[in-house]
TrEMBL record:
<dbReference type="InterPro" id="IPR006680">
    <property type="entry name" value="Amidohydro-rel"/>
</dbReference>
<dbReference type="InterPro" id="IPR011059">
    <property type="entry name" value="Metal-dep_hydrolase_composite"/>
</dbReference>
<dbReference type="GO" id="GO:0005829">
    <property type="term" value="C:cytosol"/>
</dbReference>
<dbReference type="GO" id="GO:0016812">
    <property type="term" value="F:hydrolase activity, acting on carbon-nitrogen (but not peptide) bonds, in cyclic amides"/>
</dbReference>
<comment type="similarity">
    <text>Belongs to the metallo-dependent hydrolases superfamily. Hydantoinase/dihydropyrimidinase family.</text>
</comment>
<protein>
    <submittedName>
        <fullName>Dihydropyrimidinase</fullName>
    </submittedName>
</protein>
<feature type="modified residue" description="N6-carboxylysine">
    <location>
        <position position="152"/>
    </location>
</feature>
<keyword id="KW-0378">Hydrolase</keyword>
<keyword id="KW-0479">Metal-binding</keyword>
<dbReference type="InterPro" id="IPR050378">
    <property type="entry name" value="Metallo-dep_Hydrolases_sf"/>
</dbReference>
<feature type="domain" description="Amidohydrolase-related">
    <location>
        <begin position="50"/>
        <end position="444"/>
    </location>
</feature>
<dbReference type="Pfam" id="PF01979">
    <property type="entry name" value="Amidohydro_1"/>
</dbReference>
<dbReference type="InterPro" id="IPR011778">
    <property type="entry name" value="Hydantoinase/dihydroPyrase"/>
</dbReference>
<dbReference type="InterPro" id="IPR032466">
    <property type="entry name" value="Metal_Hydrolase"/>
</dbReference>
<dbReference type="GO" id="GO:0046872">
    <property type="term" value="F:metal ion binding"/>
</dbReference>
Amino acid sequence: LDIDLAIRGGTVVTASDTIRCDVGIKNGKVALLAETITEAARTIDASGLIVMPGGIDSHVHLDQPSGPDVTMADGFESGTRSAAAGGNTTIIPFAMQVKGESLRACVSDYHRKAEGKAYIDYGFHLVVSDPTPTVLNQELPALFADGCTSFKVFMTYDDLVLSDRQLLEVFDVARREQALVMVHAEGYDNIKFLTERLEAAGKTAPYYHGPSRPQVIEREATHRAISHAELLDVPIMIVHVSGREAMEQIRWARQRGLKVYAETCPQYITLTEDDMKGLNMDMSGAKYVCSPPPRDTDSQKAIWEGLKQGVFQTFSSDHCPFFYDSPRGKLNEKGRTSFKWVPNGLPGVETRMPVLWSEGVSKGRITMNEFVALTSTNHAKLYGLYPKKGTIAVGADADIVLWDPNRKETIRQEILHHGSDYTPWEGFAVTGWPVMTIAKGRTVVDDGKVVGAMGAGSFIARDKSPYALPAGA
Ligand code: URP
Ligand code: ZN
Ligand code: ZN
Protein backbone atom coordinates (compact mmCIF):
# COMPACT_ATOMS: atom_id res chain seq x y z
CA LEU A 1 0.00 0.00 0.00
CA ASP A 2 2.98 2.35 0.51
CA ILE A 3 1.55 4.32 3.41
CA ASP A 4 3.15 7.77 3.71
CA LEU A 5 2.09 8.37 7.28
CA ALA A 6 0.60 6.20 10.01
CA ILE A 7 -1.12 7.68 13.04
CA ARG A 8 -0.70 4.93 15.59
CA GLY A 9 -2.16 4.01 18.93
CA GLY A 10 -4.95 6.59 19.16
CA THR A 11 -8.70 6.32 19.53
CA VAL A 12 -10.50 7.31 16.34
CA VAL A 13 -13.69 9.24 17.05
CA THR A 14 -16.11 10.17 14.27
CA ALA A 15 -19.67 11.46 14.46
CA SER A 16 -20.88 7.87 14.58
CA ASP A 17 -18.09 5.64 15.93
CA THR A 18 -15.40 5.36 18.58
CA ILE A 19 -12.78 2.83 17.49
CA ARG A 20 -9.28 1.90 18.62
CA CYS A 21 -7.37 1.77 15.33
CA ASP A 22 -4.44 3.16 13.37
CA VAL A 23 -4.93 5.52 10.45
CA GLY A 24 -2.84 5.14 7.28
CA ILE A 25 -2.46 8.14 4.97
CA LYS A 26 -1.32 8.17 1.37
CA ASN A 27 -1.23 11.12 -1.02
CA GLY A 28 -3.06 13.33 1.43
CA LYS A 29 -6.00 10.96 1.84
CA VAL A 30 -6.99 8.32 4.34
CA ALA A 31 -5.98 5.03 2.71
CA LEU A 32 -6.28 2.47 5.49
CA LEU A 33 -7.89 1.94 8.87
CA ALA A 34 -6.47 -1.08 10.65
CA GLU A 35 -5.86 -2.45 14.10
CA THR A 36 -2.13 -1.95 13.59
CA ILE A 37 -0.22 -0.43 10.72
CA THR A 38 3.40 -1.49 10.93
CA GLU A 39 4.77 -0.34 7.61
CA ALA A 40 4.75 3.35 6.89
CA ALA A 41 7.30 5.90 5.74
CA ARG A 42 6.54 7.98 8.82
CA THR A 43 4.71 7.33 12.08
CA ILE A 44 3.05 9.60 14.60
CA ASP A 45 2.44 8.21 18.07
CA ALA A 46 -1.10 9.08 19.13
CA SER A 47 -1.34 6.87 22.19
CA GLY A 48 -3.53 8.46 24.83
CA LEU A 49 -4.94 10.85 22.23
CA ILE A 50 -8.25 11.18 20.41
CA VAL A 51 -7.98 11.13 16.60
CA MET A 52 -10.84 13.18 15.14
CA PRO A 53 -11.83 14.73 11.83
CA GLY A 54 -10.31 18.21 11.75
CA GLY A 55 -12.69 20.94 12.72
CA ILE A 56 -14.75 22.63 10.02
CA ASP A 57 -15.81 26.13 10.98
CA SER A 58 -18.60 27.14 8.63
CA HIS A 59 -19.05 30.63 10.05
CA VAL A 60 -15.93 32.78 9.80
CA HIS A 61 -15.38 36.36 8.66
CA LEU A 62 -11.97 37.30 7.25
CA ASP A 63 -10.70 40.41 5.49
CA GLN A 64 -14.20 41.86 5.22
CA PRO A 65 -14.72 45.49 4.27
CA SER A 66 -15.91 47.03 7.55
CA GLY A 67 -16.55 50.67 6.73
CA PRO A 68 -14.30 53.73 6.63
CA ASP A 69 -13.37 53.68 10.33
CA VAL A 70 -12.61 50.02 10.98
CA THR A 71 -10.18 47.33 9.80
CA MET A 72 -10.74 43.63 10.39
CA ALA A 73 -7.99 42.00 12.45
CA ASP A 74 -7.56 38.84 10.36
CA GLY A 75 -6.98 38.15 6.71
CA PHE A 76 -6.52 34.67 5.28
CA GLU A 77 -2.97 34.26 6.57
CA SER A 78 -3.56 34.88 10.27
CA GLY A 79 -7.15 33.65 10.11
CA THR A 80 -6.30 30.21 8.74
CA ARG A 81 -3.21 29.98 10.97
CA SER A 82 -5.35 30.63 14.02
CA ALA A 83 -8.02 28.21 12.79
CA ALA A 84 -5.43 25.45 12.34
CA ALA A 85 -3.96 26.09 15.79
CA GLY A 86 -7.45 25.58 17.17
CA GLY A 87 -7.79 22.15 15.54
CA ASN A 88 -9.53 23.18 12.31
CA THR A 89 -8.68 21.94 8.84
CA THR A 90 -11.34 23.78 6.82
CA ILE A 91 -13.11 27.10 7.18
CA ILE A 92 -15.89 28.69 5.18
CA PRO A 93 -15.60 32.49 5.30
CA PHE A 94 -17.96 34.91 3.56
CA ALA A 95 -17.46 36.68 0.26
CA MET A 96 -19.51 39.74 1.05
CA GLN A 97 -21.21 41.75 -1.65
CA VAL A 98 -20.97 45.48 -1.09
CA LYS A 99 -24.17 47.22 -2.21
CA GLY A 100 -23.83 48.51 -5.75
CA GLU A 101 -21.09 46.03 -6.63
CA SER A 102 -21.37 42.87 -8.67
CA LEU A 103 -21.33 39.73 -6.57
CA ARG A 104 -19.08 38.05 -9.11
CA ALA A 105 -16.51 40.84 -8.67
CA CYS A 106 -16.66 40.43 -4.88
CA VAL A 107 -15.96 36.72 -5.16
CA SER A 108 -13.01 37.33 -7.49
CA ASP A 109 -11.73 39.82 -4.95
CA TYR A 110 -11.92 37.20 -2.18
CA HIS A 111 -10.10 34.67 -4.33
CA ARG A 112 -7.29 37.22 -4.66
CA LYS A 113 -7.32 37.89 -0.91
CA ALA A 114 -7.01 34.18 -0.13
CA GLU A 115 -4.72 33.00 -2.92
CA GLY A 116 -1.39 31.77 -1.57
CA LYS A 117 -2.26 32.87 1.97
CA ALA A 118 -4.17 29.96 3.49
CA TYR A 119 -2.69 27.25 5.72
CA ILE A 120 -5.83 25.11 5.42
CA ASP A 121 -8.58 24.60 2.85
CA TYR A 122 -11.42 27.05 2.55
CA GLY A 123 -14.67 27.65 0.69
CA PHE A 124 -16.76 30.78 0.35
CA HIS A 125 -20.32 31.47 1.36
CA LEU A 126 -21.76 34.41 -0.54
CA VAL A 127 -23.42 37.36 1.18
CA VAL A 128 -26.21 38.87 -0.89
CA SER A 129 -26.76 42.51 0.04
CA ASP A 130 -28.00 43.84 -3.30
CA PRO A 131 -30.28 41.35 -5.08
CA THR A 132 -30.54 43.06 -8.45
CA PRO A 133 -32.05 41.10 -11.34
CA THR A 134 -28.52 40.42 -12.64
CA VAL A 135 -27.45 39.05 -9.26
CA LEU A 136 -30.58 36.91 -8.95
CA ASN A 137 -30.78 35.54 -12.46
CA GLN A 138 -27.18 35.37 -13.62
CA GLU A 139 -24.55 35.82 -10.95
CA LEU A 140 -25.99 33.61 -8.23
CA PRO A 141 -26.60 30.56 -10.46
CA ALA A 142 -23.11 30.95 -11.97
CA LEU A 143 -21.43 31.27 -8.57
CA PHE A 144 -23.33 28.24 -7.20
CA ALA A 145 -22.03 26.28 -10.19
CA ASP A 146 -18.50 27.45 -9.29
CA GLY A 147 -18.79 25.81 -5.87
CA CYS A 148 -20.05 28.63 -3.66
CA THR A 149 -23.24 26.73 -2.90
CA SER A 150 -24.55 28.68 0.09
CA PHE A 151 -25.22 32.31 0.92
CA LYS A 152 -26.13 34.49 3.85
CA VAL A 153 -28.77 37.17 4.04
CA PHE A 154 -29.18 39.80 6.74
CA MET A 155 -32.40 41.10 8.24
CA THR A 156 -30.53 44.00 9.87
CA TYR A 157 -27.51 46.36 9.45
CA ASP A 158 -27.78 49.50 7.31
CA ASP A 159 -25.43 48.20 4.62
CA LEU A 160 -26.78 44.66 4.43
CA VAL A 161 -30.47 44.52 5.37
CA LEU A 162 -32.89 43.02 2.86
CA SER A 163 -36.58 43.84 2.77
CA ASP A 164 -39.13 41.03 3.07
CA ARG A 165 -39.69 41.24 -0.69
CA GLN A 166 -35.94 40.91 -1.32
CA LEU A 167 -35.72 37.95 1.07
CA LEU A 168 -38.45 36.21 -0.91
CA GLU A 169 -36.64 36.89 -4.20
CA VAL A 170 -33.37 35.36 -2.99
CA PHE A 171 -35.09 32.44 -1.24
CA ASP A 172 -36.82 31.68 -4.53
CA VAL A 173 -33.47 31.50 -6.36
CA ALA A 174 -32.09 29.26 -3.59
CA ARG A 175 -34.97 26.81 -3.99
CA ARG A 176 -34.59 26.65 -7.76
CA GLU A 177 -30.80 26.22 -7.56
CA GLN A 178 -30.56 24.06 -4.42
CA ALA A 179 -28.39 26.54 -2.57
CA LEU A 180 -28.40 26.64 1.23
CA VAL A 181 -29.63 29.94 2.72
CA MET A 182 -28.12 31.21 5.98
CA VAL A 183 -30.17 33.85 7.77
CA HIS A 184 -29.03 36.53 10.21
CA ALA A 185 -32.33 36.87 12.04
CA GLU A 186 -32.59 40.18 13.90
CA GLY A 187 -35.13 42.81 12.83
CA TYR A 188 -33.78 46.10 11.51
CA ASP A 189 -36.60 48.46 12.48
CA ASN A 190 -36.95 47.08 15.99
CA ILE A 191 -33.23 47.55 16.63
CA LYS A 192 -33.20 51.03 15.16
CA PHE A 193 -36.17 52.12 17.26
CA LEU A 194 -34.63 50.90 20.52
CA THR A 195 -31.20 52.26 19.63
CA GLU A 196 -32.58 55.74 19.09
CA ARG A 197 -34.51 55.61 22.39
CA LEU A 198 -31.42 54.45 24.29
CA GLU A 199 -29.23 57.12 22.74
CA ALA A 200 -31.81 59.81 23.52
CA ALA A 201 -31.64 58.71 27.16
CA GLY A 202 -27.85 59.02 27.13
CA LYS A 203 -27.38 55.26 27.27
CA THR A 204 -24.51 54.95 24.82
CA ALA A 205 -21.94 52.71 26.59
CA PRO A 206 -21.10 49.35 24.98
CA TYR A 207 -23.34 47.63 27.54
CA TYR A 208 -26.47 49.07 25.86
CA HIS A 209 -25.75 47.04 22.74
CA GLY A 210 -27.51 44.21 24.61
CA PRO A 211 -30.69 46.13 25.54
CA SER A 212 -30.85 47.47 21.95
CA ARG A 213 -31.43 43.95 20.58
CA PRO A 214 -33.32 41.81 23.13
CA GLN A 215 -34.39 38.24 22.38
CA VAL A 216 -37.85 39.27 21.19
CA ILE A 217 -36.23 40.99 18.20
CA GLU A 218 -34.31 37.85 17.30
CA ARG A 219 -37.44 35.75 17.84
CA GLU A 220 -39.58 37.95 15.58
CA ALA A 221 -37.04 37.88 12.76
CA THR A 222 -36.55 34.12 13.14
CA HIS A 223 -40.29 33.61 12.82
CA ARG A 224 -40.48 35.93 9.82
CA ALA A 225 -37.63 34.15 8.03
CA ILE A 226 -39.28 30.80 8.74
CA SER A 227 -42.57 32.07 7.33
CA HIS A 228 -40.92 33.28 4.12
CA ALA A 229 -39.19 29.91 3.85
CA GLU A 230 -42.48 28.06 4.37
CA LEU A 231 -44.21 30.16 1.74
CA LEU A 232 -41.63 29.13 -0.85
CA ASP A 233 -40.74 25.66 0.49
CA VAL A 234 -37.05 26.45 0.81
CA PRO A 235 -34.78 25.06 3.55
CA ILE A 236 -32.99 27.67 5.69
CA MET A 237 -30.24 27.73 8.29
CA ILE A 238 -30.71 30.16 11.19
CA VAL A 239 -27.19 31.15 12.20
CA HIS A 240 -25.85 32.31 15.57
CA VAL A 241 -28.94 31.49 17.66
CA SER A 242 -28.46 33.08 21.08
CA GLY A 243 -31.19 31.75 23.34
CA ARG A 244 -34.51 30.11 24.11
CA GLU A 245 -36.87 32.35 22.17
CA ALA A 246 -35.42 31.83 18.69
CA MET A 247 -35.04 28.12 19.55
CA GLU A 248 -38.78 27.88 20.24
CA GLN A 249 -39.49 29.19 16.74
CA ILE A 250 -37.11 26.63 15.26
CA ARG A 251 -38.73 23.75 17.16
CA TRP A 252 -42.15 24.99 16.08
CA ALA A 253 -41.07 25.10 12.44
CA ARG A 254 -39.70 21.56 12.56
CA GLN A 255 -42.95 20.29 14.08
CA ARG A 256 -44.63 21.70 10.99
CA GLY A 257 -42.31 19.61 8.83
CA LEU A 258 -40.20 22.55 7.66
CA LYS A 259 -36.52 22.15 6.91
CA VAL A 260 -35.07 24.67 9.32
CA TYR A 261 -31.50 24.13 10.53
CA ALA A 262 -29.77 26.00 13.31
CA GLU A 263 -26.32 27.03 14.44
CA THR A 264 -25.05 28.31 17.78
CA CYS A 265 -21.67 29.61 18.93
CA PRO A 266 -19.29 29.58 21.94
CA GLN A 267 -20.33 33.08 23.06
CA TYR A 268 -23.86 31.87 23.79
CA ILE A 269 -22.73 29.16 26.22
CA THR A 270 -19.97 31.09 27.97
CA LEU A 271 -20.66 34.86 27.92
CA THR A 272 -23.54 37.01 29.18
CA GLU A 273 -24.75 40.54 28.55
CA ASP A 274 -23.00 41.59 31.77
CA ASP A 275 -19.64 41.05 30.06
CA MET A 276 -20.50 44.08 27.92
CA LYS A 277 -20.48 46.23 31.07
CA GLY A 278 -16.72 45.89 31.22
CA LEU A 279 -15.39 46.97 34.58
CA ASN A 280 -17.79 49.54 36.05
CA MET A 281 -19.35 50.39 32.70
CA ASP A 282 -15.98 51.27 31.17
CA MET A 283 -15.34 50.85 27.46
CA SER A 284 -13.77 47.38 27.78
CA GLY A 285 -17.27 45.92 27.41
CA ALA A 286 -16.79 46.63 23.69
CA LYS A 287 -14.64 43.49 23.55
CA TYR A 288 -17.80 41.42 23.88
CA VAL A 289 -20.07 43.32 21.50
CA CYS A 290 -21.43 40.89 18.93
CA SER A 291 -24.83 40.20 17.37
CA PRO A 292 -27.01 38.68 18.54
CA PRO A 293 -25.58 39.74 21.89
CA PRO A 294 -24.69 37.22 24.61
CA ARG A 295 -27.75 36.81 26.86
CA ASP A 296 -28.00 35.43 30.41
CA THR A 297 -27.35 32.19 32.29
CA ASP A 298 -30.89 30.93 31.60
CA SER A 299 -30.22 31.31 27.87
CA GLN A 300 -26.97 29.40 28.25
CA LYS A 301 -28.96 26.57 29.82
CA ALA A 302 -31.42 26.68 26.94
CA ILE A 303 -28.61 26.49 24.39
CA TRP A 304 -27.19 23.42 26.13
CA GLU A 305 -30.61 21.76 25.94
CA GLY A 306 -30.62 22.58 22.23
CA LEU A 307 -27.17 21.12 21.73
CA LYS A 308 -28.19 17.91 23.49
CA GLN A 309 -31.58 17.59 21.79
CA GLY A 310 -30.45 18.22 18.23
CA VAL A 311 -31.96 21.68 17.84
CA PHE A 312 -28.50 22.72 16.65
CA GLN A 313 -26.73 20.98 13.78
CA THR A 314 -23.62 23.14 13.88
CA PHE A 315 -21.48 24.86 16.48
CA SER A 316 -19.47 27.60 14.74
CA SER A 317 -17.27 30.40 15.99
CA ASP A 318 -18.76 33.34 14.06
CA HIS A 319 -15.14 34.51 14.16
CA CYS A 320 -15.40 38.19 13.28
CA PRO A 321 -12.19 39.70 14.64
CA PHE A 322 -11.55 43.34 15.44
CA PHE A 323 -8.84 45.06 17.45
CA TYR A 324 -9.73 46.45 20.84
CA ASP A 325 -6.97 48.94 21.53
CA SER A 326 -6.64 50.52 18.10
CA PRO A 327 -7.97 53.66 16.40
CA ARG A 328 -9.46 51.40 13.72
CA GLY A 329 -10.88 48.85 16.14
CA LYS A 330 -13.79 48.39 18.53
CA LEU A 331 -13.14 51.82 20.03
CA ASN A 332 -12.63 53.87 16.93
CA GLU A 333 -13.53 57.52 17.39
CA LYS A 334 -17.22 56.92 16.67
CA GLY A 335 -17.29 53.70 18.69
CA ARG A 336 -16.46 55.75 21.79
CA THR A 337 -19.55 57.91 21.25
CA SER A 338 -22.15 55.12 20.99
CA PHE A 339 -22.48 51.35 21.12
CA LYS A 340 -24.07 51.52 17.70
CA TRP A 341 -20.68 52.30 16.12
CA VAL A 342 -18.77 49.54 17.89
CA PRO A 343 -18.07 46.93 15.21
CA ASN A 344 -19.97 43.73 15.97
CA GLY A 345 -18.04 40.49 16.33
CA LEU A 346 -15.60 38.44 18.37
CA PRO A 347 -12.40 36.56 17.54
CA GLY A 348 -12.97 32.87 18.29
CA VAL A 349 -11.91 30.51 15.51
CA GLU A 350 -9.04 29.16 17.64
CA THR A 351 -10.97 28.73 20.88
CA ARG A 352 -14.23 27.23 19.50
CA MET A 353 -13.24 23.57 19.80
CA PRO A 354 -11.47 23.75 23.19
CA VAL A 355 -14.42 25.68 24.68
CA LEU A 356 -16.99 23.14 23.44
CA TRP A 357 -14.87 20.13 24.38
CA SER A 358 -14.21 21.47 27.85
CA GLU A 359 -17.72 22.72 28.65
CA GLY A 360 -19.43 19.92 26.72
CA VAL A 361 -17.45 16.68 26.65
CA SER A 362 -15.31 17.13 29.77
CA LYS A 363 -18.33 18.19 31.81
CA GLY A 364 -20.42 15.28 30.55
CA ARG A 365 -23.04 17.32 28.66
CA ILE A 366 -22.37 15.87 25.20
CA THR A 367 -20.55 12.82 23.88
CA MET A 368 -17.32 12.85 21.90
CA ASN A 369 -19.30 11.76 18.83
CA GLU A 370 -21.73 14.63 19.26
CA PHE A 371 -18.74 16.95 19.56
CA VAL A 372 -17.43 15.74 16.19
CA ALA A 373 -20.85 16.13 14.58
CA LEU A 374 -21.23 19.67 15.93
CA THR A 375 -17.73 20.87 15.06
CA SER A 376 -17.01 19.02 11.81
CA THR A 377 -19.28 16.38 10.25
CA ASN A 378 -22.53 18.34 10.14
CA HIS A 379 -20.77 21.35 8.64
CA ALA A 380 -19.46 19.11 5.87
CA LYS A 381 -22.85 17.53 5.26
CA LEU A 382 -24.85 20.77 5.26
CA TYR A 383 -22.43 22.71 3.09
CA GLY A 384 -21.56 20.15 0.42
CA LEU A 385 -18.14 18.95 1.61
CA TYR A 386 -19.05 15.44 2.75
CA PRO A 387 -17.53 12.81 2.67
CA LYS A 388 -14.38 14.43 1.26
CA LYS A 389 -14.25 16.29 4.57
CA GLY A 390 -15.87 15.84 7.96
CA THR A 391 -15.05 12.21 8.65
CA ILE A 392 -12.20 9.73 8.92
CA ALA A 393 -12.91 7.12 6.27
CA VAL A 394 -11.01 5.53 3.43
CA GLY A 395 -10.89 8.03 0.56
CA ALA A 396 -11.56 11.11 2.67
CA ASP A 397 -9.03 13.94 2.85
CA ALA A 398 -6.57 13.25 5.67
CA ASP A 399 -7.80 16.24 7.69
CA ILE A 400 -7.25 15.18 11.25
CA VAL A 401 -6.79 16.68 14.68
CA LEU A 402 -4.99 14.85 17.47
CA TRP A 403 -6.69 15.85 20.69
CA ASP A 404 -5.51 15.51 24.26
CA PRO A 405 -8.74 15.10 26.24
CA ASN A 406 -7.05 15.70 29.58
CA ARG A 407 -4.73 18.57 28.87
CA LYS A 408 -5.49 21.63 30.97
CA GLU A 409 -4.88 25.05 29.49
CA THR A 410 -5.84 28.57 30.38
CA ILE A 411 -6.86 30.55 27.31
CA ARG A 412 -4.74 33.67 27.03
CA GLN A 413 -4.08 36.14 24.24
CA GLU A 414 -0.35 35.32 24.29
CA ILE A 415 -0.86 31.66 23.28
CA LEU A 416 -3.25 32.41 20.38
CA HIS A 417 -2.36 32.90 16.72
CA HIS A 418 -5.05 35.31 15.54
CA GLY A 419 -4.59 38.94 14.54
CA SER A 420 -6.75 40.48 17.26
CA ASP A 421 -5.11 42.07 20.27
CA TYR A 422 -7.39 40.31 22.74
CA THR A 423 -9.53 37.24 23.32
CA PRO A 424 -12.98 37.35 24.97
CA TRP A 425 -11.94 34.11 26.76
CA GLU A 426 -8.87 35.57 28.51
CA GLY A 427 -8.29 33.49 31.66
CA PHE A 428 -10.90 30.85 30.73
CA ALA A 429 -9.69 27.44 31.93
CA VAL A 430 -10.27 24.45 29.67
CA THR A 431 -9.68 20.73 29.83
CA GLY A 432 -8.94 19.27 26.39
CA TRP A 433 -6.69 20.77 23.74
CA PRO A 434 -5.57 20.15 20.12
CA VAL A 435 -1.99 18.90 20.12
CA MET A 436 -1.55 18.42 16.37
CA THR A 437 -3.47 19.53 13.29
CA ILE A 438 -2.94 17.54 10.10
CA ALA A 439 -4.40 18.84 6.82
CA LYS A 440 -4.33 16.70 3.67
CA GLY A 441 -1.77 14.47 5.39
CA ARG A 442 0.63 17.29 6.32
CA THR A 443 1.23 18.61 9.82
CA VAL A 444 0.13 22.24 10.00
CA VAL A 445 0.38 22.86 13.75
CA ASP A 446 2.44 20.80 16.18
CA ASP A 447 1.87 21.57 19.86
CA GLY A 448 1.04 25.22 19.23
CA LYS A 449 3.85 25.70 16.73
CA VAL A 450 2.85 26.47 13.15
CA VAL A 451 4.91 24.18 10.92
CA GLY A 452 2.68 24.13 7.84
CA ALA A 453 3.16 26.15 4.69
CA MET A 454 1.27 29.29 3.90
CA GLY A 455 -0.49 28.62 0.62
CA ALA A 456 -0.89 24.88 1.27
CA GLY A 457 -4.62 25.43 1.73
CA SER A 458 -6.76 25.74 -1.35
CA PHE A 459 -10.21 26.84 -2.40
CA ILE A 460 -12.71 24.01 -2.30
CA ALA A 461 -15.56 24.10 -4.78
CA ARG A 462 -18.43 22.67 -2.73
CA ASP A 463 -21.19 20.37 -3.98
CA LYS A 464 -24.80 21.42 -3.84
CA SER A 465 -26.12 20.62 -0.37
CA PRO A 466 -28.47 17.63 -0.16
CA TYR A 467 -30.01 19.49 2.79
CA ALA A 468 -31.04 22.36 0.52
CA LEU A 469 -33.55 20.24 -1.39
CA PRO A 470 -37.12 21.53 -0.91
CA ALA A 471 -39.33 19.42 1.36
CA GLY A 472 -41.81 18.96 -1.48
CA ALA A 473 -44.65 20.85 0.17
O1 URP B 1 -21.50 40.28 15.65
C1 URP B 1 -21.32 39.52 14.73
N1 URP B 1 -21.82 38.31 14.76
N2 URP B 1 -20.62 39.89 13.68
C2 URP B 1 -20.37 39.10 12.58
C3 URP B 1 -21.34 39.33 11.50
C4 URP B 1 -22.50 38.43 11.63
O2 URP B 1 -23.59 38.95 11.72
O3 URP B 1 -22.35 37.22 11.63
ZN1 ZN C 1 -24.83 37.35 11.30
ZN1 ZN D 1 -21.07 36.05 11.39
